């Protein structure tokens, strides 16, 4: 590709023909890849990210790099370890022996007594010569007569090593290369933690985590689960049926959360992991099949007449005694079959709530469903226990989670031993509340143990999440759930109703509502640049995860109501409450999610303030909740109001970003900020909302605003390569 000349403001342009250029004027050749198609210069974030002086991330030595230190004895191989800071509150940043976050220091010992830390300001790693201003620390393995091979592992190998020399004789991570044969260790990997916390440091993988193909395959089971539960809920538009759905949907969401966390922290995509995913999918299928068999039937005049007739023929005291024991009540009534004029007998078991009855066999169906759910939960508990044995440095955190899972399982087990509806409802509700609180309690307990360990110098090893992976998993999960609404918006044209008609209009509105909901979810908090809730602190991270339970449940209910609204011009039953209530819940959840993110836009740079954007979501939530109070809605009018309101909200949020300028990461000011926090003992990060910089150097493209509507930062950034004749035509569009 030939270079070309391009004049820019402040730069000399090429002289016109016939005009001689002066000797002191040099023609400047502009690299076309420096500027976009509209004349703007590309951000220099790529070059900046390669300079370790402007980022808080540092490389950790690998096994291959570690083996390139021949001057170190085999029994004293050194492993580069990021230093752990132990600044006491109220101490000066420059005080001897206590260094700030900006200039880390080494401590004397770690949790494993066989390893000692040695401060080293003179030795510099060969692979990172730019960080000479930082003091370095190394983890030195004490010599106890072990074989030389047991001391050639990287930091990852040492952290994952067991207490015996036999388990440490080989590197934990098998070497991968195209010219190496596949071994059994490639197919079945040892337990591992992909990223972890130790002291004030996070050790994570350099490459960005992406969901594996089998994670997406696992999500396919939710297509079947959501579809089945949605159809079961659509059979009756009653409040008790909606309550039944909310209770039955939680175990599915709980299992999905367990699997997501496991794959995030310990995913290896090997044979064992894929078999585990297959097992979880089968268990979810078994749970859904049984919980969908639980039916609720409303009392009808036919049923009441049948009950009163049986009472008249029977002995009065005997009938009263029989009705006093609800578990022994069995009545039969007839209902019309949908396919023919014949009738189908339905046996009633016990009265539920509000004039509804459980059909016969409800207790056995609930027991079987909870059994499948418990096996899936105990499976996860077993992994916590097994990983605790296999990874002793992470044992305390893993077994604390195992204890919490055991308590939760203890709440659900009695459900398999009772048939009383009120007791089942109480235990299910208690289990949901306890599981929601579990994450907060475990996080607080880990912080408590960490604080006690820090005072003695034995810092805990705590498994950590890959936030990039989690963010993408949640986005894909919400897309999957919204897909049910799009499926419900499709219809089959009937004879005499082809082309554009009212039913097509309702279907178009249903698709529009689904897309607009996803649009608002993508916009997060309506900012151009923001810090995701998963990154802020433990409260915002856990709350963000929990909000997806009511959000996805409301989206399924909305899909259920859309199917009925599109099929019928007049709204039947309580589907207007389904639709209005679920749409209101969705907007409340989206508003809460927006509040959890941290806005990083420059103060006053946008057309509409962020608080007004978030507040408008709650205003529309109130509007949707009040819609069912108007009793004479038809389907087209109701869907038009909701779609129009969502369209207004999308335009309001999107156009409200006009003029928004995001803050830039500043390494120098970040060091000063953290140094000041250490010196004053400040625990919370407080940012000046009027500043033009932020201290977060690990924001994703979405958080930096590069995935906003119409914003693509690298259009026109080109590269070239030579192709063979056949390859060239394969690329032709």
UniProtKB/TrEMBL annotation:
Keywords: Membrane, Transmembrane, Transmembrane helix
InterPro entries cross-referenced by the UniProt entry: Low_temperature_requirement_A (IPR010640)
Residue ranges with Basic residues bias: 138-149
Parts of the chain that traverse the membrane: 275-297, 365-386, 398-417, 423-450, 471-492, 504-522, 543-563, 575-596, 608-629, 635-655
Presence of the UniProt keyword Transmembrane helix in the record: yes
Stretches for region Disordered: 1-25, 116-149
Protein's name in the database: Low temperature requirement A
The organism of origin for this protein: Pseudozyma hubeiensis (strain SY62)
């Amino acid at each position: 590709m030939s270079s070309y000349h391009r004049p820019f403001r402040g730069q000399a342009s090429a002289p016109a023909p016939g005009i001689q250029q002066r000797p002191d004027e040099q023609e400047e050749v502009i690299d076309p890849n420096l500027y976009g198609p509209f004349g703007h210069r590309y951000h220099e974030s790529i070059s900046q990210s390669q300079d370790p002086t402007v980022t808080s991330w540092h490389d950790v030595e690998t096994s291959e790099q570690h083996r390139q230190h021949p001057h170190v004895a085999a029994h004293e191989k050194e492993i580069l370890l990021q230093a752990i800071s132990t600044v006491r509150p109220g101490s000066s940043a420059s005080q001897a022996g206590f260094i700030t976050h900006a200039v880390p220091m080494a401590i004397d010992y770690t949790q494993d007594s066989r390893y000692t830390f040695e401060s080293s300001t003179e030795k510099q790693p060969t692979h990172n010569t730019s960080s000479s201003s930082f003091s370095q620390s190394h983890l030195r393995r004490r010599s106890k007569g072990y074989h030389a091979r047991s001391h050639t592992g990287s930091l990852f190998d040492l952290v994952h090593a067991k207490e015996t020399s036999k388990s440490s004789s080989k590197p934990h991570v098998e070497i991968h290369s195209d010219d190496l044969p596949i071994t059994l260790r490639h197919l079945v990997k040892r337990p591992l933690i992909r990223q972890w916390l130790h002291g004030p440091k996070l050790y994570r993988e350099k490459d960005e985590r992406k969901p594996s193909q089998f994670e997406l395959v696992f999500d396919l089971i939710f297509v079947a689960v959501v579809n089945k539960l949605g159809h079961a809920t659509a059979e009756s538009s009653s409040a008790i049926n909606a309550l039944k759905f909310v209770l039955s949907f939680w175990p599915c969401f709980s299992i999905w959360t367990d699997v997501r966390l496991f794959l995030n922290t310990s995913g290896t995509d090997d044979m064992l992991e894929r078999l585990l995913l297959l097992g979880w999918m089968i268990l979810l299928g078994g749970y859904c099949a049984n919980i969908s068999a639980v039916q609720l039937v409303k009392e009808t005049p036919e049923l009441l007449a049948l009950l009163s007739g049986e009472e008249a023929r029977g002995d009065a005291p005997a009938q009263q005694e029989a009705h006093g024991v609800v578990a022994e009540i069995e009545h039969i009534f007839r209902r019309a079959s949908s396919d023919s004029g014949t009738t189908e007998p339905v046996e009633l078991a016990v009265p539920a709530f509000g004039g509804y009855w459980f059909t016969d066999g409800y207790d056995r169906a609930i027991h079987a469903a909870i059994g499948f759910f418990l096996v899936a939960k105990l499976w996860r508990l077993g992994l916590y226990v097994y990983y605790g044995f296999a990874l002793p440095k992470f044992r305390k955190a893993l077994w604390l989670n195992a204890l919490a899972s055991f308590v939760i399982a203890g709440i659900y087990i009695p459900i398999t031993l009772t048939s009383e509806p009120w007791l089942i409802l109480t235990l299910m509700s208690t289990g949901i509340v306890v599981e929601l609180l579990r994450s907060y309690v475990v996080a607080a307990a880990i912080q408590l143990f960490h604080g006690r360990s820090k005072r003695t110098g034995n810092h805990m090893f705590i498994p950590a999440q890959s936030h990039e992976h989690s963010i993408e998993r949640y986005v894909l999960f919400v897309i999957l759930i919204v897909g049910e609404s799009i499926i419900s918006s499709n219809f089959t044209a009937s004879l005499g109703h082809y082309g554009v008609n009212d039913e097509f209009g309702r279907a178009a509105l249903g698709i529009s509502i689904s897309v607009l909901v996803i649009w608002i979810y993508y916009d997060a908090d309506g900012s151009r640049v923001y810090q995701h809730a998963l990154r802020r602190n433990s409260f915002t991270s856990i709350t963000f995860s929990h909000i997806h339970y009511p959000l996805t449940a409301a989206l399924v209910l909305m899909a259920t109501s859309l199917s009925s609204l599109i099929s019928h011009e007049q709204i039947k039953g309580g589907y207007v409450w389904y639709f209005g209530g679920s749409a209101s819940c969705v907007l409340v959840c989206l508003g809460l999610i927006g509040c959890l993110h941290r806005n990083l836009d420059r103060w006053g740079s946008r057309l509409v303030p962020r608080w007004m954007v978030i507040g408008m979501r709650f205003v529309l939530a109130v509007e949707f909740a009040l819609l069912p109070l108007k009793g004479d809605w038809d389907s087209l009018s109701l869907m038009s109001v909701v779609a129009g309101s969502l369209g207004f909200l999308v335009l309001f949020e999107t156009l409200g970003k006009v003029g928004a300028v995001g803050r830039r990461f500043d390494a120098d000011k970040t060091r000063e900020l953290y140094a000041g926090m250490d010196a004053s003992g400040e625990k919370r990060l407080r940012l000046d909302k009027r500043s033009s910089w932020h201290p977060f150097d690990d924001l994703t493209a979405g958080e930096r605003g590069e995935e906003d509507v119409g914003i693509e930062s690298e259009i026109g950034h080109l590269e070239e390569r030579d192709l063979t004749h056949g390859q060239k035509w394969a690329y032709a569009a």
